Amino acid sequence: MQLIRHLSQILKQNTSKTQGSVLTIGNFDGIHLGHEKILNEVLKIADEKNLQSVILTFEPHPTSFFKADKSKDFRLTTLSQKLKIFREKKIAQAVIMPFNSNFANFSAENFINNILINSLNVKYLIIGYDFTFGKNREGNLQLLEQFAKKHEFNIIKLEAYKNNGEIYSSSLIRNFIKDGKIKEANHALGRNFSLEGIVNCGKKLGRTIGFPTMNIKPKSTAIKPKFGVYKINAIIDKKTYKGIMNFGLRPTIINTLQPIYEIHLFDFNQEIYGQKIRFELLDFIREEKKFQSLDALKQQIIIDITNVKS
Questions:
Q1: For the chain, domain boundaries
Q2: What DSSP character marks residue 20?
Q3: pLDDT tens, position by position, 6-41
Q4: How many C-beta neighbours within 10 Å does residue 91 have?
Q5: Residue 165 burial (10 A CB sphere; 0-12, 13-18, 19+)
Q6: pTM to 2 decimals?
Q7: Which residues make beta-bridge pairs with 214?
Q8: 128: helix, coil or strand?
Q9: Helices and strands of the chain, counted as H and E runs
Q10: pLDDT of residue 99 exceeding 80
Q11: Which CATH superfamily does the domain covering 2-163 fall into?
Q12: Given pLDDT bands bounded at 50, 70 and 90, which one contains residue 251?
């Protein structure tokens, strides 16, 4: 997959080549089943028409620019996670548009002329049901249709992906995760919700009760799940390990000011401090609570592990 990360690179692209693009545009945070529907349509048409499949997405997420106070505890996927999925889907080109004040002030017509037509040589534009673009979101389907007729490209608008009448969206999945509805989130994503982070060297208090843990600080911009205990998989060096995780403030051992992921894997005894790992949330087991003693906590962990393994 070709990766383009700067506006100057985009504007310098040679559109004189005969092969145009099948393009879609969006944040694609989470890349849920609704997004999958769009990506599959891009790939299908690109294959049928012998065109290049192209995704234009934004970094950082526009929310970080327009609503900085809401950008924490927000993102479902990092950029690297999104690009990994795009590669797996065999998208030909990913354009990462830097979302800054310069781009935020692009008029809709400027965006169509300079980006879509002159740079990306769009032949088919696939858009979702709620697509808007350009400064003050002035760009819409009607404006696109005017340019499409003049410059001879096609627009395909896809309806919302629904399940039992509910529209699958990134906002819906964020709510699922914050409410501890992990199975519902995973169903809407079409895969297990995953997080990643660096294993930190903690105080090793888990070892004192027989359950050593890997501690990972959450990223500030990443969505935070509900405090509690989860059934998880951890992917380390391309191998999957089953385990259990607590996310919260550790009120029994030490009440921290910032929440932390504490991961205990069942068949893993290596020290991997400083290593980046990925972990998938499979199910919510129970809410975090404060126990009267470490022995009471230990007994509850035994129960939790039994429940997870069963």
A1: 2-163, 192-309
A2: -
A3: 767 777 765 555 579 999 999 999 999 999 999 999
A4: 21
A5: exposed
A6: 0.91
A7: 263
A8: coil
A9: 10, 14
A10: yes
A11: HUPs (3.40.50.620)
A12: confident
